[in-house]
Amino acid sequence: MAKCSALVPISRLRARVQFVRVREQGFRVPCKGFALQILPVAEEAGVQVGFTATTKTIGNAVARNRARRRLKTLIDKHMRLCETWNVGGFWLVVVARDFVLDMDASTLDAEMLKGLAQVREKMTKIQRTDGA
Q1: What is the CATH number of the domain that holds 55?
Q2: What is the pLDDT of residues 103-113, one digit of tens each?
């Protein structure tokens, strides 16, 4: 388990340009109820996270907000509290899928852990190739 002693500062992605840049230039980790899109950003330190849930995949505003709240809680739980994420700058976009509302909390939690482990693996590979 990751060392979880200090809060990692996580800010939010808010501009559409940032979301588009992550989608076009980053890499994607598909999970059952969501997808993680990651882009290493050298000009910024820390982690910036954005959340998206569309009408086409999720539904009305109530359902979209519920999906985003569930995903935000998991990101806070697994990223903000673990200093293993206190690495060079990267942007992370969490894209909600329609399954996110039907999954129970423990399954969703396990999927987030699995997805974040894959993200961490890819980030360390990128850092190794940049440093070598």
Answers
A1: 3.30.230.10
A2: 999 999 999 99
